[in-house]
Each structure stands twice: as C-alpha cells, then as structure tokens.
Design brief:
The complex is a heterodimer. Chain A is α/β, with parallel strands linked by helices. Helix content of chain A is 38%, strand content 11%. Chain A has helices spanning 5-29, 35-39, 41-51, 75-85, 125-138, 157-168, 189-192, 198-204, 217-229, 274-284, and strands at residues 66-69, 145-150, 174-180, 183-184, 187-188, 208-213, 235-240. In chain A, the strands form two sheets. Chain A has a five-stranded parallel sheet with strand order 1-2-3-7-6, with helices on both faces. A two-stranded antiparallel sheet of chain A has the order 4-5. The N and C termini of chain A lie far apart (39 Å). Chain B is an alpha/beta fold. Chain B folds into two domains: 4-10 and 192-327, Rossmann fold; 19-184, Thiamin diphosphate (ThDP)-binding fold, Pyr/PP domains (Rossmann fold, 3-Layer(aba) Sandwich). Chain B has helices spanning 22-36, 48-51, 53-59, 71-83, 102-111, 139-144, 157-169, 218-230, 248-258, 273-284, 304-310, 315-327, and strands at residues 19-20, 40-44, 64-66, 87-93, 117-121, 150-152, 174-177, 183-184, 199-202, 209-213, 235-239, 242-244, 261-268, 289-294. In chain B, the strands form three sheets. A seven-stranded mixed sheet of chain B has the order 3-2-4-5-7-6-12, sandwiched between helices. In chain B, strands 9-11-10-13-14 form a five-stranded mixed sheet, sandwiched between helices. In chain B, strands 1-8 form a two-stranded antiparallel ribbon. In chain B, helix 7 links the parallel strand 6 and strand 7. In chain B, helix 1 (22-36) runs parallel beside helix 7 and helix 4 (71-83) packs parallel to helix 5 (102-111). Classes of the chains: A alpha/beta, B alpha/beta.
C-alpha cells in the first residue's frame, strides 16, 4: 500500500532527528564516520519507522524482521535510529565510542540487543543475512531479512560468495540494500576499483534488481514492498544516496568518509565551526531538531 | 602402568587395535548429535566425502548445506544460521577453515559468541603426500588465541565421536581438530569425556618426566612411555583433548610430581598446545618444559609415519627425546 503524504512527512521528520543526533554523537565521540551515516538517515528512518516488524521494548522478539548492517562503520545512524525508535534513551547516543559504552565504535551483538550481529570488517554481512534467511525458511518462518551494505565493501570477495549462495538458494525472504554513494575512504569507487555495471552484476548472480533514489522515502518503501512480491529470487535495492546528505558543503566529498565534525577538511568550513554549521543546515531541511538530552 | 579407571582398551600396547581416523569419529558423532538435536545443520565447502560430512547428508539431507569452494562464506553463513537458532558445524580442511577464513571466524563467530562448531579436517601432517599447503600446523595457535572459543583435539576416533557430541551441546563457539590418518583406537565407549578435563593415561609412581599430549599422538606417547618404563625410567602421560580451556589442575599436578614436562603435538611447537602448557606452568609452577612439534618450519610431502619420524613425533623419537633430556 502506498504511503500517504502525511506518512512520508513523518518519516522525513524522523530522518532529520536521526541526522541531528548523528552530528551530536560524533562531536561527543571526537571520532567516527560522518558521510555514510548522514547519507543513510532516510533509509534508516524508513526501516525503523515503517518497514520493520520489530519491538523496541523487546529487541529479541522472535517475530521480528532481521536488519543486518554489513558496513558496521556507519553504525551511528543505526544507533540514532534505534534511540529515536525507543530502544534506549537518545542521550545514551552521546556515549558512542566511549569506555564502557554499549554503543561500540562498530556494533556488537553481545553488547547491544537489537543490532543482530557484530560487524565492521567488510563483506561478511550478506553471508550472515543469507544464513539467517536460510535458517528462518527451514523453520517455515515468515520473518524477512534485510542486509544493508556499502558500495565500497562490494570489493570484498566474501560478498560475491554470499551472492552465489543466496542466488542458488532463491532466498526470496532476503532483501539486500546497497548504499550507492560512490565514495570510499581513499576516493571514488570508480577510481579505486570500479563496480559498474553494478546492476548487471547482481542480475547475473540471480538477484532481482531495483534502482532507487535513496533519499526518496516513498520510492524506497515501494521498492521494499515490491521485493516482498518477488518469490523466485532475492532482491537487491541499489539505493543511490548522497554521502553527507543534509550538509551541502560536505555532500559528495569522500574526505568526509571517516572524519567527525571538527576533524574534517577545513577548506570550506573551519574546524571549530563544523558541528554548528552541520546542525544549522540539517535544521534548515525543515525539521524540528530537539537538542535537549537532559 | 595404565590408569584402569579410564576404561581404555585392555592390553592396548600389545593387542591389535582397530585403526580409524578421528574424522571417522566426527562422522559418527555428528550423525548421533543430529538425531538428538533437530536444529543441528552441517555445512560443506565441496569436500563432503573426505570430511565425512556426507555421512550426515545421507541421514539428514534437508539439514546439509553445500556452499561450494567458499570457506569465508561458509563461516559467515553459519554465523547467520546460529543467530536464528541453528547449531551449525562447518567442515573443510583445517588449512582452509580456519586457515582461509580466520577473520570471519573471529568476528562473526567468536566475537558474536555464537554456537558454531568449526571442524578442521586433515590437520597436522596427516594429509601426508599433499604437502605443506594442505598440512595445517598453526590452527591450534590461531584458535586458542580467540576469546569465547573452545578448542578440542581428540586422540582417537572414539574420543572424536564424544568431542563432536559434546561440541553440539555446549552452546559456545568450538574448534574441533581432526586428522586424516588411520590411528589406533585405544579409548572405549566407557572412557570418560568432559570438555576441559584431561585424562591421566599413566600416573607413574615417581615419574622423572611427564609427557603431555594432544590429538592422535597420545598413543605414540603411551608406546614411548612403555619403552622407557621397560628400562626403569618412570614417566607419566597426560592427554589433553581440550587445549582451551586447558586443564590447569591436571597440568600442575603432573608437573609437580615429575618436575619436568615434554609436550607433544602435531603442530608448530610454538603457540599451540606446548605454548599453552608453558604459559600455565611458567606462571604457577615453573619447571623445565621441552616442546615437541614442528620447529618453526612447514611440512612437506611424504607418508604420515615418515613425516612423524622426520619431525620427531613418532613413538621412537618421543622416547629418544625423553632419554636424551634425562641423560643431560
């Protein structure tokens, strides 16, 4: 069923909250990745506030859908989305990467309920999601499994071993989502190690492929719904996103892949102004930005 | 001489013993464990005949998962299966799993603390003619360094069967090490087995040296002990089927009694079982330790007995090592 305008707007507002919290947590942590989390805020809002069957108060609920984050380095967006969805207080986000926190620099299954698996080393999420999908299907369960991946990590061979497996076994309860933002740490993916023609590659591995604008909530949700209707193979959604989305000075700039506000390139915004500018711009996207963690 | 409370095969040094590989013990054990637990699944990376995973497939075709030649995928798919309640056994040669897929095992199985059982076949130099590429002699070191991981290296097919069944029940990440070669089966159905509990095969009255073994070399250690005792040299023999957690109490007791220890393993002498023993003893009861194993070298082609002789791991070479050390 198509989303109403009001539903789309509500999810967009959540995405802005998620973005603002990402900035706050990265500033507090003084390290971490900025571009990827900002770029995936819309998709995470769509998952946690519309798509997923889940229960924030009961993260281990058996009936939940599984959301595997393969590229663990963008986990601030997941923590932020989980906090806003009610898994834990938003103020706990400020403990990101600090000693004793549940919010480890890369997510850990045994530390924080609801993250489903430990990730960070790239290229192993699709395999794990495939294993979950296979096991759930063995038991006749209807839960869906989603796997979020970066484009850069598609350079890992393990990803394609997983694609062979998921394709062979026609894991139609599995939907992969690729954050196609075209950047990786050392530069643009097509310079570092080209991935195109990306859609053709996945089709060749027996996946149904859908290309979407990763910032268009309605388009993304429709793609996820369409994937549920494909019964003969797994689906991959190639979500074209803008790294750093929400702050125009850093959008598309790969130098912001691995730096937090305050430590990024200073040719456009001085270091001491970065956090302030980011938050101002995110607010200017039209949403409310609650900043009261007390 | 032998510890009769362990219900070992009677006359095990003189009788003609049945010879079987520990991988055969795995095959029998995993079928038995599969009958008990409907959530047990076996994954194969294109080596189902030689790993004996095929024995499970014949009984439970719907719970056998073929991954093709893809050990990294096998480990990570297994982690996913375990996350939804399965108990996966992943099977390949130890050289490839955990050799090829160490990081996947580390992150998605050990750090995730999921009950996946990594079964490394053809470990040590037991794969003989295939040569160094396929002879895994660093796996105990790799696996025992991992937090959460239990590491077992059974002595014979019967103990391998028990270790497999125990691994299926323990709810933790496990590394099980198996050999290809047929070796004497000297334990019985009644021989006790508990994860982390070493077997004192020979107690010794006033032992001059304690032999500590792991894996299939336990039988050769017993032969060496018998030969030494024939010449009036009293020794004890303790078999550690579990390398991690190491049975510290058994290690300390035997070391205190004998005053010196020889460790015996079909593995690098550094970092593996001998390393684990040396760590414990140096901290709690420092006594001289001699570590038998490969001395910072790779294996090579040859028949298994030939290779054991060459690397100082045959019964005769173990005996000679003890004599030479005691004569100093």
């Amino acid at each position: 069923m198509a989303l109403t305008d009001a539903q789309v707007h509500a999810i967009e507002e959540k995405a802005r909250d998620i973005r603002a919290t990402i900035i706050d947590m990265l500033v507090a942590a003084k390290s971490g990745h900025t571009a990827g989390p900002l770029g995936m805020a819309d998709i995470f809002a769509a998952f946690y506030f519309h798509i997923l069957a889940h229960d924030p108060k009961n993260p281990d609920w058996e009936g939940r859908d599984r959301l595997v984050l393969s590229n663990g380095h963008i986990v601030p967006v997941r923590y932020s989305a989980m906090a806003h969805a009610g898994y834990f207080p938003v103020k706990e986000c400020l403990t990101l990467r600090k000693f004793g926190t549940r919010l480890q620099g890369h997510p850990e299954r045994t530390k924080l309920p609801g993250v489903e698996t430990t990730s960070g080393p790239l290229g192993s999420g699709l395999s794990q999601a495939s294993g979950m999908a296979y096991g759930l299907r063995m038991d006749g369960k209807a839960n869906r499994v989603y796997c979020l991946m970066s484009d850069g990590e598609l350079q890992e061979g393990n990803t394609w071993e997983a694609a062979l497996f998921a394709g062979k076994n026609r894991l139609s309860n599995l939907t992969a989502v690729i954050d196609r933002n075209n950047i990786q740490i050392d530069g643009m993916t097509e310079d570092i190690m080209p991935l195109e023609p990306l859609a053709d590659k996945w089709r060749a591995f027996n996946f149904h492929v859908i290309d979407v604008d990763g910032h268009n909530i309605e388009e993304f949700v429709n793609a996820v719904e369409m994937a549920k209707a494909i019964h003969e193979k797994p689906t991959v959604i190639i979500a074209h996103t803008i790294p750093g989305k929400g702050v125009k000075e850093i959008e598309f700039d790969y130098r912001w892949h691995g730096n937090p506000p305050g430590k990024g390139p200073t040719d456009k915004i001085p270091a001491d102004k970065q956090a302030e500018v980011f938050l101002k711009e995110i607010r200017s996207m039209g949403g409310k930005v609650p900043h009261d963690y007390a | 001489m032998l510890n009769h409370t362990l219900k070992l095969v009677p006359d095990l040094l003189t009788a003609k013993l049945e010879e079987k590989s520990t991988r055969d013990g795995f095959g029998t054990g995993v079928v038995a464990a599969g009958k008990e637990n409907p959530n047990l699944v076996v994954l194969s990376a294109d080596l189902k005949e030689s790993t004996r995973a095929e024995w499970f497939e014949k009984e439970f075709p719907d719970r056998f998962i073929e991954l093709g030649v893809a050990e990294q995928n096998m480990a990570t798919v297994a982690a996913g299966l375990a996350a939804v309640g399965k108990v996966p056994f992943i099977t390949s040669y130890a050289a490839f799993s955990p050799g090829r897929n160490y990081e996947q095992i580390r992150t998605t199985i050990a750090l995730n603390d999921l009950p996946v059982v990594v079964c490394g076949m053809h470990a040590g130099v037991s794969v003989g003619p295939d040569g160094a590429t396929h002879q895994m002699v660093e796996d105990l070191a790799m696996m025992r360094a991992l937090p959460n991981m239990i590491v077992m290296n059974p002595a014979d097919a019967e103990e391998a069967r028990k270790a497999t069944i125990a691994a299926a029940k323990c709810g933790k990440p496990v590394y099980l090490r198996f050999g290809r070669a047929n070796m004497p089966v000297f334990t019985t159905l009644e021989t006790p087995f508990a994860i982390g509990k070493a077997l004192t095969l020979v107690e010794g009255e006033k032992p001059e040296v304690a032999l500590f073994t792991t894996g299939s070399l336990a039988y050769y250690a017993l032969q060496a002990a018998a030969a030494l005792q024939k010449d009036g040299i009293d020794v004890s023999v303790t078999h550690f089927h579990t390398v991690k957690p190491l049975d510290t109490a058994a290690a300390l007791a035997a070391a205190k009694k004998a005053g010196r220890v020889i460790t015996i393993e079909e593995h690098q002498a550094a970092g593996g079982f001998g390393g684990a023993v040396a760590e414990v003893l140096s901290e709690h009861y420092p006594v001289p330790v001699k570590r038998l194993g490969l001395q910072d070298e790779f294996g090579q082609s040859g028949e298994h007995p030939q290779l054991l002789e060459h690397y100082g791991l045959s019964a005769a070479r173990i005996e000679a090592a003890a004599r030479a050390w005691l004569a100093l």
